[in-house]
Amino acid sequence: QEPKSHTPNNPAPNNSVPSETNSSRNELIERVFSVDVPIYHEIQHLEFCGLHALNNALQERYFTRETLDSISHQVASSDSSNFVHSTPNGRYSLSTLIEAINHIGLYSSRMSNSEVGSWLVNGISPGIYIVLRANHYYVIRKMQSTSQVYYIDSMQSKAFVVSSVNQLRPLIRNNNTFFTVLSITRIQSNI
Fold first, then answer.
1. Residue 52 near residue 38, CB atoms below 8 Å
2. CA atoms of 140 and 143, how far apart (whole Å)
3. Distance (Å, rounded) from C-alpha 71 to C-alpha 68?
4. Which of 133, 178, 139 is nearest to 156 (CA)?
5. CA 58/CA 63 separation, integer angstroms
6. Helix (H, G, I), strand (E, B) or coil at 177
């Protein structure tokens, strides 16, 4: 089935940010991990690939420029360095994306090179991954129900199915250098 694409001028049908209640967070988390085709895909606007990657990972327009700017300012206020966490054109730091993921009750962890490299041998585990390559973010997502791997990049006109290791290799590394990959998972409860 052909993935759906949405642009900033043609937003997804549900374009309001859900409230911050625990029930709406739990509903979002359930939707994120139960999504199957068709694939939600936002198209690039300025340098907002971080924003688009988050929404593409979540499979809905959850974050807006305003909400991500707010999170970026919170990250900057707790950072003692002079590191820039966002620009007016929409470039967001990895720390901002990590905080945004944590803000909605999900957990993100940076994968080691050996973990990412194992994809080339063992295949990708079902899950959601945001990849940072040369200041550009995109999503690799493996659906549990179909086992299909999708490459969802806001710089592309649509999402693509990754059907082989040869197609996956350039998406996760350049020569012997692996790109930064965040794995997004549910937060495990200790109850």
1. no
2. 10
3. 5
4. 139
5. 9
6. strand
Amino acid at residue number 36: D
Which residue is listed with tokens 């988050």?
54
Nearest to 128 by CA among 5, 32, 18: 32
pLDDT by position in tens, the chain (length 191): 334 444 443 333 333 333 455 556 566 656 665 555 578 889 988 888 999 999 998 888 989 999 998 888 888 877 766 555 566 667 888 889 988 998 888 888 888 888 888 887 777 777 888 988 888 899 988 876 677 888 889 988 888 888 887 888 888 887 667 788 888 887 654 43
Q: Identify the three-state secondary structure at position 54.
A: helix
Question: What region, left, alpha or beta, does residue 185 occupy, with left being phi > 0 and alpha being psi -120 to 50 degrees?
Answer: beta
Closest by CA to 31, choosing from 110, 105, 132, 96, is 105
Q: Which residue has the tokens 């295949």?
A: 123
SS3 readout for 96-163: HHHHHHHHCCEEEEECCHHHHHHHHHHCCCCEEEEEEECCEEEEEEECCCCCCEEEECCCCCCCEEEC
3-class secondary-structure state, position 92: strand
Residue 56: what are its φ and ψ, rounded to 5°? -65, -35
Cα(110)–Cα(148) distance, integer angstroms: 22
